[in-house]
Amino acid sequence: MKTLLSIVLLLAFGACVWGDTAEQIAEFKEDAANGDPAAQWALGYTYSYGIGVPKDDKEAAKWIRKAAEQGNADAQFKYW
After folding, report:
1. Which candidate among 9, 41, 50, 79 keeps its CA 20 to 30 Å from the CA of 59?
2. How far apart are CA 33 and CA 15, in angstroms?
3. Predicted TM-score of the model (pTM)
């Protein structure tokens, strides 16, 4: 639930109004590495648009694909 709330806040506020972006990205990375599809989607999104990390389409596709393969609908829409 904490990851979902962080994702919503990151996306809704453009990663510049709410909280510490570096801390949120670190949480996404940890949760994504542990298999959380919501965190994988969020991490892919941040790499896709360069929010708090350098823009990296290859890294974005990697994380979005992982989330899509686990059934994350947002990731499936973006990836497929």
Report:
1. 9
2. 21
3. 0.74
Say whether 52 sits in a helix, a strand or coil. Answer: coil
Closest by CA to 45, choosing from 60, 66, 27, 30, is 60
In this structure, are residues 11 and 45 in contact, taking their beta carbons and an 8 Å threshold?
yes
How many Å apart are CA 46 and CA 72, to the nearest integer?
16
CATH of the domain at 47: 1.25.40.10
> Tokens 């059934």 — which residue?
71
Domain span holding position 51: 21-79
CA-to-CA dists, residue 24 to 3, 9, 21, 55, angstroms: 9, 10, 5, 16
Q: What angle do CA 40, 24, 2 make, to 5 degrees?
A: 75
Q: Per residue in 26-41, pLDDT tens? A: 999 999 999 999 999 9
